[in-house]
Amino acid sequence: MADDKQLTRLRDQIDSIDDQILALISERARCAQQVAEVKQSAGDAVFYRPEREAQVLRHIMAKNQGPLDNEEMARLFREIMSACLALEQPVKVAFLGPEGTFTQEAALKHFGHSAVTVPLGAIDEVFREVAAGAVNYGVVPVENSTEGMINHTLDTFLDSTLNICGEVELRIHHHLLVGPNTHSDHITRVYSHSQSLAQCRQWLDGHYPKAERIAVSSNAEAAKRIKGEWNSAAIAGDMAAELYGLTKLNEKIEDRPDNSTRFLIIGRDSIPPSGDDKTSIIVAVRNEPGALHNLLEPFHRNGVDLTRVETRPSRTGKWTYVFFIDFLGHRDAPNVSAVLAEVGSIVADLRVLGSYPKAVL
User: Fold this and answer.
1) Which of 38, 146, 169, 173 is the most exposed place for a label (fewest CB within 10 A)?
2) Residue limits of the Chorismate mutase domain (predicted)?
């Protein structure tokens, strides 16, 4: 009886707290509507501000005292911000489809589930839709912790004038999925994206060494294919399994437990400083002795931390290359602007792809 009374008191307390949460969320939503009215009266058509959202989430995590961890608390507040932003103007986001891909999961992680997501068939299509103004932003994969850079994304930047507006890091868990008609003891074919097949190579060697591995355009496409086949399985994630009604025969089969993919948010606007930013540039160097040293030395001298340096073949000539460089800091920071000015004076070409908030989580 005493336990029943204690439970009743606790449930009453939860009900009271829920009422307060409801009132505060509604108050926040009304405030967001007022922000939209102020922006409209000032002629400001930009509703979504990546730097502002990053600042809010960092503030929340700094104030968080548990028991929910920072990642979960940030997820909750991102959904609140997404719903409030939708009252002003829903954000329309293109992603590398079809539905159920990790890229869609990254888009929803960054923009929240109130965003309108649009699946497209190729990375360059995402770039074109953003450039044309058909969507506000695009999400494309750029780097995997196991398999390295996504070269198609890097190459598309060579011909694009879009800006990088943000980044998302997503922990990737692969599952072996089967359909309702699959004979699980007679799997002779495994579908997935080539990157996912590579990320699960050792597991497949140990468990299905004789199964044919067929690379398709996406993990979601793999999930769709096996629904009509009795001897096939797919490697894909939770979203694809739920969307296409598949069963997880084996979970988390990636070879490395820390397997993660980094995605870029692309848009048409430059992003103001958030206080904790990264910058990405493309540099074409002249073919001369010491060119790489001369390119990198100003970063070291000005205390700018490089986080990634990649090379890709140039479109301008045989055996010539461009460098994709990521580093910490915003282009408006004095030390970064000094580096960009110096580097720009010694290279054949330099283009800033964007300064943007570092991934919050």
Assistant:
1) 38
2) 1-92
Per-position b or e across 205-234, b if 16+ CB within 10 A of its CB? eeebeeeebeebebbbbbbbbbbebeebbb
Mean pLDDT to the nearest integer, 202-212: 96
For domain 175-250, the CATH superfamily is Periplasmic binding protein-like II (3.40.190.10)
Radius of gyration of the chain (CA): 23
Domain boundaries 277-357, CATH class: alpha beta
Asked if residue 3 lies in contact with residue 58, where contact means CB atoms within 8 angstroms, the answer is no
The residue to which tokens 């002249």 are assigned: 286
Local structure of 246: helix, strand or coil: coil
In whole angstroms, what is the distance from residue 263 CA to residue 140 CA? 5
Q: Supply the mean pLDDT for the chain.
A: 92
3-state secondary structure of 185: helix
Angle between helices 334-346 and 291-301 (to 10 degrees): 160
Report which secondary-structure segment, H or E, holds 157: helix 151-158
Give me the phi and psi of 56, to 5 degrees please.
-65, -45
Burial of 31 per CB tally in 10 Å (0-12, 13-18, 19+):
exposed
Question: How far is C-alpha 117 from the geometric centre of its chain's CA atoms?
Answer: 13
Q: What residues contact residue 180 under an 8 Å CB cut-off, 6+ apart?
A: 227, 245, 247
Domain boundaries, the chain: 175-250, 277-357
